[in-house]
């Protein structure tokens, strides 16, 4: 079994004397683990950081075997963000969420391109936290748990959608949600439209929203918590007054 695919590194851990087991998010093959010979060497290790872009060439004798891979780096990867610890935290959190949420060896091209869009945005400090929320919403969509933000679940209204039902993931208008507002999740405008703008508190509301549904629909059935890197990201954004 052999293939070559565009990929992002999600994680890497040492294996053997100099190799590494690396998890990739590939464009056409989904999340794939492979042994990378020399993966802990000084020559290759810098290109196996979470979020690094590469062309991955995979080979295995049989399809259900852990195969080996060679890696051809693409671009600067995380090294371009070394002066921005907060952006690196965002990249690490996205890689951890994707690694924990996506099933292995199942194509999810939507997740790949959402991850790509997020990595491209990390050089823009004012907008990438909102795009991180969109990345997680896209991940939910690609896994079959997409939020329905098209109209009010109670009245069918298309306007003034400011809440989301924590049970169904459907939008609720201000009027319909008023009696239940303490039980509903807040819907930031930037999830409805790219023209919605980002106001103080919107990123926190978006992160709370996607965290709720990732936990309810993805991680609880797997008996897993949200990845620690995702929790650290919220703390660091809060410390930086970016929520």
Structural summary, described in words:
- 33% of the residues lie in helices and 21% in strands.
- It is built from six helices and eight strands.
- The strands form two sheets. The chain has a five-stranded antiparallel sheet with strand order 3-2-1-4-5. Strands 7-6-8 form a three-stranded antiparallel sheet.
- A hairpin with a 6-residue loop joins β6 and β7 (171-173).
- The protein is elongated and about 60 Å long.
What is the count of DSSP helices, taking H or I runs of 4+ residues?
6
Strand content is 15-25%
Radius of gyration of CA atoms, rounded to a whole number: 19 Å
Q: What is the distance, rounded to the nearest whole angstrom, between the alpha carbons of the first and last residues?
A: 46 Å
Mean pLDDT: 94
The parts where pLDDT drops under 50 for at least 5 residues are: none
Element order: H for helix, E for strand: EEEEEHHHEEHEHH
Q: Strand order, biggest sheet?
A: 3-2-1-4-5
Biggest sheet character: 5 strands, antiparallel
What shape does the CA trace take?
Answer: elongated
The percentage helix is 25-40%
Helix and strand composition category: alpha+beta
Number of strands: 8
């Amino acid at each position: 079994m052999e293939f070559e695919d565009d990929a992002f590194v999600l994680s890497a851990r040492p294996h053997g004397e100099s190799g590494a087991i690396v998890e990739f998010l590939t464009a056409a093959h989904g999340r794939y683990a492979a042994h990378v010979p020399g993966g802990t060497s000084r020559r290759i290790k810098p290109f196996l950081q979470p979020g690094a872009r590469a062309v991955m060439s995979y080979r295995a004798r049989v399809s259900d075997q852990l195969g080996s891979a060679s890696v051809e780096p693409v671009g600067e990867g995380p090294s371009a963000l070394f002066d921005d610890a907060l952006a690196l935290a965002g990249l690490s959190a996205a890689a951890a969420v994707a690694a924990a949420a996506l099933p292995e060896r199942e194509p999810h091209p939507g997740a790949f391109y959402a991850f790509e869009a997020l990595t491209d945005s990390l050089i823009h400090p004012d907008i990438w936290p909102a795009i991180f929320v969109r990345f997680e919403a896209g991940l939910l969509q690609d896994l079959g748990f997409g939020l329905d933000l098209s109209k009010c679940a109670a009245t069918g209204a298309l306007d003034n959608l400011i809440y989301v039902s924590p049970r169904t993931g459907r939008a609720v208008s201000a009027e319909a949600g008023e009696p239940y507002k303490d039980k509903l999740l807040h819907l930031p405008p930037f999830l409805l439209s790219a023209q919605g703008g980002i106001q103080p508190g919107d990123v926190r509301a978006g992160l709370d929203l996607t965290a709720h549904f990732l936990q309810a629909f993805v991680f609880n059935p797997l008996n897993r918590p949200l990845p620690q890197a995702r929790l650290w990201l919220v703390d660091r954004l809060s410390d930086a007054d970016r929520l």
